[in-house]
Amino acid sequence: MKILVVAAHPDDEVLGCGGYLYTRILSGDSARILILGEGITSRLEKRVVTDEVARDLEALKKNAAACAAKLGAGELFFKDLPDNRFDSIDFLDIVKMVEKHIREFKPDVVFTHFSGDLNIDHRISYNAVMTAARPHSSAFVPEIYSFEVPSSTDLIPPSGFAAYQPNFYFALTQEALEAKLAAYSNYVSEVPAFPHSRSIESLKIHHAKRGIECGALRAESFIQIRRVVS
To answer: Are strands 219-227 and 168-171 parallel, antiparallel or unpaired?
Structure first.
């Protein structure tokens, strides 16, 4: 099986489905990770890529490569879209980026963001995947899942967006959870301290809670958007 992960920012891919990726790749499946955004410049007053910022961006890419290697993913691609400014890019251009990778890689399944995430880049990434992989498109994909990203999916406003209600769970072994957390730890500039929802301690609690929901010791949760069988 071929798995394509379309993530908005570096670290979304491992937070969203790192345990699933590690387990499936270990069993012989292949995976490609497409990271659409650069993930840093929204923290600046203005998006000015100085030499220092360029070095930080390059370091983040190296962190992403180390994370992908830990998960076993052999292919990692970056599109360097401006962080938290995807809405400043023509939507069709983003769709075509996703289409290109679907046509090249021909995945059996795609994982991407939840449509109602607080982060606008996440919502646009979801919409780009759904547009690229629409029925009758040459980039059609039979299986699509949304993942959750702590500090975005869990911060959905009480009104205006649909709630994240998982209907697909992947039970994680202790090994898979440890591999996911070790991979995530490569993002040295992105891992906050407890009690932030993306801290290592919080993630352990989060995956235990998802496990409780499905009768497992620990789990990742997803929303199954599409599954076509024949």
So the answer is: antiparallel
Between strands 143-147 and 109-112, the pairing is parallel
The answer, as to whether pTM is greater than 0.85, is yes
For 168-211, write each residue's pLDDT tens digit.
999 999 999 999 999 999 999 889 999 999 999 999 999 999 99
**Does the bond joining 158 to the residue before it have cis omega, within 30 degrees of 0?**
no
- Could you give the C-alpha distances from 37 to 69, 146, 153, 181, 207, in angstroms and in order? 20, 18, 18, 22, 26
Residue 64 has pLDDT above 80, yes or no: yes
The number of angstroms, rounded, from the C-alpha of 215 to the middle of its chain's C-alpha atoms is 24
Domain 2-227 is found in CATH 3.40.50.10320: yes
